[in-house]
Amino acid sequence: MAQALDIDRWDLECGFNNLDHRTDLNGVDRLILRRGQPFTISLYLRSGIYQPGVSSLDCIAETGPQPSEQYGTRASFGLSANIDTSCWSAAVTSPPGDMVALSLCSAPDAPIGRYTLTVGRSMRIEFILLFNPWCTGDAVYMDNEKSLEEYVLSQGGIIYRGSYTYPISTPWNFGQFESGILDICLRILDMNPKCLKNPGKDCSGRRNPIYVSRVLSAMVNCNDDKGVLLGKWTDGYEGGVSPMFWRGSVEILRNWDTQACQPVRYGQCWVFAAVACSISRALGIPCRVVTNYLSAHDNNSDLVIECYINENGQLIKSKEMVWNYHCWVENWMTRPDLKSDFNGWQASDPTPQEKSNGVYCCGPVSVRSIKEGELTFKYDAPFVFAEVNADIITIMKKKDGSTSKVTTNTTKVGQKISTKSVGSDAREDITHLYKYPEDTDEEREAFKKANHQNALLKQQQNQGLHLTIKVTSDMKKGCDFDVFAVVTNNTQSEKKCRLVFGSCAVSYSGLLGENCGFKDLLNVELSPGAERRVPLRLNYSKYGGLVTEDNLIRLAALLMDYSTRDTTLTVRNIVLENPEIKVRILGEPKQNRKLAAEITLKNPLPEPLDNCCFSIEGANLTAGQVISERLGSSVGPGEDAKVKIYFTPTHSGLRKLVVDFDSNKLCHVKGYRNVIIG
Question: Is 277 a catalytic residue?
């Protein structure tokens, strides 16, 4: 007859188990496990000894407020001869005696979250269970150790901003293993409306990374719920801070947690994406932030963006826009609801743009399905397809109320889709994962499949007059410089034209600001084959007070041929370059040894900088805090702003120190330094 073991005390062996499960960066003061992987606890018996085949031990694992075997949130199991990694199981791995090494394993599809495990009559332990991309039976399994280092374990990264002609690397501290962050991520899941309405069903859904990433897409923004961030895209950040203020996700998540789940103000797309990436990695889903340049926002699902301009070539505001860039995340998982070709990276977008099933969320949608034009697949495929592949029709609205089509462009949207490379700070271009090369048969075939009513529209190249915008390489903030409209006459006859060449400040989401410089030439004459370069001077005295923190200026040139009445428009966004932040580490970088960073920035502006402040943060470098140092005096033109900031690294290995400089005239300049801690 089986005899139940009489347990006196136990040791959860957190140090060993957490290290083995790659959760030790969360700390080793409690048990944090990955599903489908065995772990061992030590039991010390009050009386008797463990005897194989005679001793028995009943185990019950439960998660959520209403555990039930039907929902998969409760599992009962006893001792077996060996561990079975395909389900909840337990086995003794030590010889007979009064100390028992009990090996246990969770099912690879068990819901993630907080668990209570009851062992025998008297023993109750608590642990946290996460997704396990190292486990072949887990839906998030990834078969590449270097990719897992990057997409799950790396706490620092690069997000791409700027423009497709000048991508800017912005460092970011994801900080998913910093103190308290995992608990905040679990709280975000608990605050989601589906959980508040039916906690049992929601906890059951947490076995599925598709479900979890869709919940996160909705919860990172606060539009329908007690989500993390409030978005703001227009001037003035009263009651909060500019999205450019943030250097990492840790401060945002902690603010949300300590402010009773009130939304943190404010975010824009790269901040929403970065926070979603931190939470996904914390929960064990491989994740990366992706930037799509010239990203279309199609609000009526016709896969066409209609842009309206006036007779001066200035954009007239409309609901459909092409953003200078837009960021989202990709999560790695299998898609059992689709064919196996559509496993792998799934695009998910936490920036609130359009509703999906009545909620502001987007995805996860298979990146492969976007490339193939399979728009019937879940979730939100038409919206993401348009972001990378919509056609743009530009229409001129004339003063008399009439309209005329100026251009159709099938190749502009979706440029240089970028993410950080595995194991280095280089940019990886992943455009080929989202679409076939522009204007190839495969790309147009994907369009036809995508029910695109204008599938065969090709851009009407104006063979007569050609118009481009050329810029210099040296467009630094604080400098005056020229940009050029270049008109070429490719015809056999003399041409007379009107050229309107203007510039204005623009935000990355396409919102136009005030005019930075404008020219209207009524008589541009060109002989056959001739070229004319028309300069437009951009003076800091004019643009300095107008550009937003995005440092973007929109250039637009409009050419009207008097003889044929043809109109040609060309548009280009330029990015003003911020000065470089130089970081020098003083002292030998060692774990638990105080270090100094000497940080320098040269003032590039023709005016002094006041209220100068440097801030640093870095996972396992600054103890989860932001450390700031203010300068007491103004920094004159051409002078250096310089500080020393002290910090104490807590872990060895490669770490990323993220730096931010802010002042009254030069806002949120970013820099970083990789540091190897001995």
Answer: no
